[in-house]
Design brief:
11 helices
């Protein structure tokens, strides 16, 4: 692919912000192609097309990070090196999320109802879960936390089996979050337009930014957790493919993957706390 040939893990770790535009472009192309070719199934097809575009650079990154495990002995230094990959993964995820949010916000309603159908259904089911009285908040917290643990397990397993398989779950989550942001922004923009007309351009940016902030508060640590888990599974997968399980250093790889999983669980715990107890207070 053209863009993939211009990007590689070494360059991405040095300029992680460029991955934002890669995610934006990949997702936009996926959405447009899905509308053009597979309109009735576009809510899932756009995810698959985006994943196909992202897999090469993600798998190259898994290979790079596994190579670091073979060379670096200090676990602290290893985690620091892995954080570079997590950082550019987050920019890629942000690009996909913003792309979905923008397309949802500005596409006509008859398109968004089809293109983001499955994502909207997922959001409605989540809203039904978190709605309830204050005394039940701890129950809601446990449900969200253990549901996120399940997603983490799938992200790790997918990466272990497919090398870069976690990108499917993460792209799906990006499309869901982007849809949620788009719904929030579209509703707010409609309210602003009804009250002040279409002359207040600043209000558009304000409502869209508020939509992003609403989900970024708990979404950032949650997505980071999934990337840590996906990286752990991917590193083990690459090690097995390269027959490094026969090496004495394989125990170091397993130890490193375990640390990444522990970090991911900590981030999921923090994300669940923010989602249940902080975000509802602010929005």
């Amino acid at each position: 692919m053209v863009i993939e040939s211009l990007m590689n893990p070494f360059k991405a770790e040095k300029k992680p912000w460029e991955m934002f535009f890669v995610g934006l472009v990949y997702s936009s192309i996926g959405i447009l192609l899905s509308i053009w070719v597979f309109r009735e199934a576009s809510s899932l097809v756009m995810v698959f097309l985006t994943v196909m575009a992202c897999v090469p650079i993600l798998y190259s990154t898994m290979r790079l990070e596994e190579g670091k495990d073979m060379e670096i002995k200090s676990e602290r230094r290893l985690i620091k090196e892995h954080n570079k990959a997590i950082f550019f993964f987050m920019f890629l995820f942000a690009g996909i999320t913003v792309s979905c949010a923008l397309w949802y916000t500005f596409l006509p309603a008859n398109y968004t109802s089809i293109v983001f159908e499955k994502q909207s259904q997922t959001i409605d089911s989540i809203n039904n879960l978190v709605s309830g009285s204050a005394p039940g908040q701890f129950t809601i917290f446990s449900k969200i936390f253990f549901n996120n643990i399940k997603v983490l397990a799938f992200a790790t397993l997918f990466s272990f089996i497919y090398g870069a398989g976690a990108i499917f779950i993460l792209t799906w989550n990006a499309s869901v979050i982007g849809t949620a942001i788009g719904r929030f922004a579209k509703a707010s923009i409609g309210s602003v337009a009804g009250s002040f007309g279409f002359t207040n351009v600043a209000a558009y940016f304000q409502t869209f930014s508020a939509g992003i902030l609403r989900y970024a508060i708990h979404g950032i640590p949650e997505v980071m957790a999934y990337f840590y888990g996906g990286l752990a599974g991917g590193i083990i997968s690459v090690a097995i493919v390269n027959h490094h399980y026969e090496s004495e250093k394989f125990s170091r790889i397993l130890f490193d993957a375990s640390d990444l999983l522990i970090i991911s669980i900590i981030f999921l715990f923090i994300a669940a706390l923010l989602e249940v107890f902080v975000t509802p207070m602010l929005f």
